[in-house]
Every structure is written in structure tokens, then in C-alpha cells.
Amino acid sequence: QPVEATDDAFWDQFWADTATSVQDVFALVPAAEIRAVREESPSNLATLCYKAVEKLVQGAESGCHTEKERQIVLNCCRLLTRILPYIFEDPDWRGFFWSTVPGAGRGGGDEDDENARPLAESLLLAVADLLFCPDFTVQSHRRSTVVSLGFFLSSRTELLKLLLTCFSEAMYLPPSSDSSNANPWVQFFCSTENRHALPLFTSLLNVVCAYDPVGYGIPYNHLLFSDYREPLVEEAAQVLIVTLDYDSSTSSSPTVDGTTTGTAMDDVDPPGPDNLFVNYLSRIHREEDFQFILKGVARLLSNPLVQTYLPNSAKKIQFHQELLVLFWKLCDFNKKFLFFVLKSSDVLDILVPILYFLNDARADQSRVGLMHIGVFILLLLSGERNFGVRLNKPYSVRVPMDIPVFTGTHADLLIIVFHKIITSGHQRLQPLFDCLLTIVVNVSPYLKSLSMVAANKLLHLLEAFSTTWFLFSAVQNHHLVFFLLEVFNNIIQYQFDGNSNLVYAVIRKRNVFHQLANLPTDSQSIQKGLQRKKKTPEPISRTNSQDGVSMEGSRPAAPAEPGTLKTSLVATPGIDKLTEKSQVSEDGTMRSLEPESSQPPPEGNPPSAVSDGEPWSGEASHPRRDRRRLSSASSSGQWAPTPEWVMSWKSKLPLQTIMRLLQVLVPQVEKICIDKGLTDESEILKFLQHGTLVGLLPVPHPILIRKYQANSGTAMWFRTYMWGVIYLRNVDPPIWYDTDVKLFEIQRV
């Protein structure tokens, strides 16, 4: 039966107990009971929430000077963390925290009801106040404090956990492309209503970036002392990325020099985003701040790679996915930070860990999200010329990775890892192939000298992607060949001199280019090509890829353990929606190119005819309506290749430069071999090193870069990915486990 709100003796028993932990609260308050109270005595649940918030507000106002007050605040905090997800999962309750509670006015009289705050606002402001409460969450100026640093850290962690739970209402709404449905909890917390917004933002960022998990480097240190800091850093990283969940494609985004894209009429600075956290993040500009952030993120990302001679002697952090989301937000919202990252070879301290994670997760279905974010970050970086230039730095760090041993640059490392992902990753990574090759295209004009291993990998990919069955078996597969040809053309035209290894590999595999030039287009050959598919189920043959020995100390990439939990993700937009073409002019500046086919789709053909699973790049394809006509749909509704369709893109294959190179160099190489009886690569390479094609090649084509552009599709992807990570990582206590989340599905591998 309903209990009166004034019955303090009854309500106080919920938070008066001294010896509880958050785990105790989760054990003592089972899910079934919360749901039963919600259905059968809603007024009691409402009173419990209201009373718990009231205790937090009182604690914030009084300053929590006694041990008892601090205990009450922590218990209310744990109780609300336990109950909130069950409020959010029921649509009828979702508005409850945004309503005002009758009689909650300060004076107790009716006249105060007018300006009573919604419960959610009171709760958020109390938590913000409590996070800066002397002797509770921060050191006080009085020297006589008896409270240990561990207590401060764990109190902060519990308050941040409650904050994250408040923000998690987003998990209970299905994914929608409408970016206007901003999270009201985050919106209020990051608004000017919160007087602590700036100190909170800087504190969260400082806590994450200053953390050094290895500490003083005493081996096995982490096994002897409990580290109160790591849970706080994880919680801070999670709260930070959730508060920065903001769709930048809908806003006026600052351009390179910090001004906004607008007309000359807008001479006043446009107001930044209402979300103060996004606003502050986008306005960080001091070099030393950038250095601090970059060093901190790089140190933490590299932590899992640090190999020690004593097994398990160093602490390994687990929150690299949150760090990658944070790094993405920094680069996406603050262009000055992006340029700072690319200004020196420090960017390689971010690149190497990302390549390590990509390589390590390639066979694991439960880590598809990690693969995507890693590739997205590299796509964003590759849109800037400096990234390609930085890749020429020799790679000497020997992080044990399950890839062939090579001597070369960071560009070689990137190509070798991408080859490994494409040839030995799992099936669900196929939508990423376009992105991976776009990154290679973007950096290719700047690569001074590829190693023989990397050159062979690129040619092996071309060989695999240009088999007839692969080209004819899906409507977008030929794009991969176009990307690879563009890579070869960029290197031959702009970096011929240092790339004798690649030129040699092209000469050795010249038959692949001749076969492409002579690709059959008649129906019979198309059918024959498709027949071959049935005999080779493996998507890409791994033969003729001389993998050689893997690096010492590396473990092969393993699939997920059966039963591993994973969360579903929304589809990502195709590469044509993810990127925008820019042309690099002589002086290195870029200008955006309008997409070629912007005409509306014909009637009766919805714009989404090209699904997210089949990226469509404007290259080598007719505009959509032509493509519909060129590739006949067979009776089963399945797409089928036709001679007209093959002709439509075969005629556009950019083979001129390579054919000219072969025409000039093959006879010369053959002559040397006959004259000197050579079978030795090194002599031929020496000849190619000194050769030149000046004046013999077609006029160099302009360099095309496909730069990442923000869009609501990726904003939604980031939201589902981020909350999925947070859901899975919060297991002790399991805050959201077994509640009815709608943003994603929980699946078992």
C-alpha cells in the first residue's frame, strides 16, 4: 500500500545503512522487485525517487560535512543508479523525472510550486555540486582532513556512475536518423544552467589525459594495491564521450581557420553549439593543451601494446574504445587540434595502436565496432596531406603483430595490416573494404618508397579483386579495382623515383593489367565467370600472397569466444556519403568538387535504393537510374550483371598510365635479362631505380582526395556504438543488464 512521503522513519531505512557498497544495493534490490513496485504501487516508486533526489539536494546544500551525511548521499546515489534504468525502460514513466513534484517547493506552501524545478534538473545540479564538495570529492583547504585520496576518487566515481545512468535514457529509444532528438539530460547538464559546466569539462578531460596506468613502473604494482584512479578514469571517459554526442553535420561547422562557413552578411560570430562541452572542446587552442591531450591519449592507447619481459607485470587498461571515440570527437569538433596532431610525427603514436587494434580484432565478430571506429579515424586523418607525408617515417618500433616481418616505413605497416584485414578478416568487414582502399588512395601521392612486401600486397589485392567472378558477383565490387588503379597511378605519376619496388611488382604482375584491359563483356563469358564463384567459396584467395614468417612474439588474431556478448550496430553510410571529393591544386590547397550526379532519383525509385550495405561511389558508375537499366534484375529480384553494365565501367578503367609504363619498361627489362643472363631481382631493381619516365607518361592527372564529411548517418552510428560499448563495459555493477534497451540488440557470438 502507498506510504506517505512524510513517513521519514520508513524512507530513511533506504539510505541510513552505513556498510553498503554499490554491489550490495544491486544485490538487495532485485530487478523483479523494482518492476513490481513500478506496476503495482507506482506512487511508492515515485516517492522513493523524489526522496532520494531530495537527500542529494540537501547534501549538496549542506556541504556533507559529516561522515553520516556523506554515507546518505552515496547510498541515495547507488539506489538511483539501480532504479533509473527501470524508469527509462517504461515509456509511461519516462517523463516522470521531467515533471515537478507537488509540494516540492522550498517553503512547503503552494506559492512555490510555480518555480519548482523538474526532478531531473534538481538531480543533475545536485550531482554537479557534489562533484566539487570539499572533504567528499575534493580536498579541502583545511589541512586536518582525515579523508584518504582513495575515498575522494571512489566518491567521484560513484557520482559519475549516477550521471552516466541519467544520460543512459538514450539507450531506451530506438535508433532514428532524426538527429533533433537530443538527450534532454545531457542537454540540461551541458547548458548554462549548470554553473559547474566549465570546471567539470576540464576536470573530466584532465583526469583522462593525465592518467598513467603504469605509474612508477614497479612491476606487479597493480596486483598489490587497488588503483582507485582507473575506475574514475574509465567513468570520466564514458561521461565525456556521452556529453559530446552531438551531430556536427546539422550545425554550422567551423572551417579550417576557425571561421564559419557563411555569407559575408554574417559578420558577427555565430553562436557556438548550445552544448557547452562541445563548445569548450571546439575552442581549445593553446599548443600546450593540445600537447597534453595528444600525449595523454597516445600514452593510454599504446598501453595494451607495451610488451614487458615479465608476463602480466604491467597494468593493461581496457577502455581503448572510449579513448578512440574521444579522439574522434576531438578531431571532428576541433580542426586546430586535427592540424596539431598532423603537424609532427606524433600522429604515428596514434596510428600504430590503431593498426594494432585493427589487426588484432580482424577475426573477432564481437569487435566489429572497434574495426569501424579505427578505420573512420584513419579515413578522417587521410583527408589531410600531412598524414600521407608523416607515413614516410621509418617504422622501427617492433610491436609484436601477427603480420609478415618487413623493413620499411609506417606506410608499409598500414598497407600490410590493411591487406591482412581484407584477406583474413571475417565476412562482416566487407563493407569496410571501400574505406580501407580510400585511405590508401588518399595517402598514395605522398608515399616516397614502398617496401617490396607492401608492393606485393597491393598487387595481390588487385589480383584478387580483378578475378571475373569477383567483378561480376556484386554491383559495387569493381570500385575496389578502380581504387587500386588510382593508387598505382598516383605513385607512378607523383612518386616514381623512389618506388622501384612497386614498379618491379607491376612489371612482374603485368598479366593482371592486360586481363583487365581485355575483360570479356559478352553474356557467355559473364556467366562463365560467375560459375567460378561456386567453386571458390573463399572471398579472396590467399594463395600467391607470400606471407612469410609473422613477427616474433605475436599471437594470431583470434575469433570471439562462443557466447561473447556483443551489441548490434546501425549500418554505416556508403563511401560516397562518408566522403566528399576534393582536388589538390599545384600549391597544395584543396578545392571541393561537386558530386557529378546530383539529379534526383526517378519516380518510383526511392533514394535509398542503394542500401548501406552496398556503398556506391560516383566513380565508374552511371548515375543511379542508368545503372538500374544497365544491370537487369533477374526474376528473383536479385541483381544480375549484363554486358552493357560491364561495358559501362570497363571503358572507364584508368589503365593508360600503367600500360604506357609497361610498354616502355618491359622490353628494356627483358633485354637486360637476356643480355646479362639475369634472374636476379637486385640488378633489375637497380636498373629501375635509375630509370626515368619523364616525358613518356600521359600528363599527370590532378590528385583527388576523398575527405570525410560529417553526416547524420555517422552521428547515429557513433551513438549506437558508444552506448553499446558502455553497456558491455559496465558489468560490476551491471547497470543496464537485462533491461529493455531499444538502441541496439544484445547478441551472443
From TrEMBL:
<dbReference type="InterPro" id="IPR026705">
    <property type="entry name" value="Hid-1/Ecm30"/>
</dbReference>
<feature type="region of interest" description="Disordered">
    <location>
        <begin position="524"/>
        <end position="640"/>
    </location>
</feature>
<dbReference type="GO" id="GO:0000138">
    <property type="term" value="C:Golgi trans cisterna"/>
</dbReference>
<dbReference type="Pfam" id="PF12722">
    <property type="entry name" value="Hid1"/>
</dbReference>
<protein>
    <submittedName>
        <fullName>HID1 protein</fullName>
    </submittedName>
</protein>
<dbReference type="GO" id="GO:0016020">
    <property type="term" value="C:membrane"/>
</dbReference>
<dbReference type="GO" id="GO:0005797">
    <property type="term" value="C:Golgi medial cisterna"/>
</dbReference>
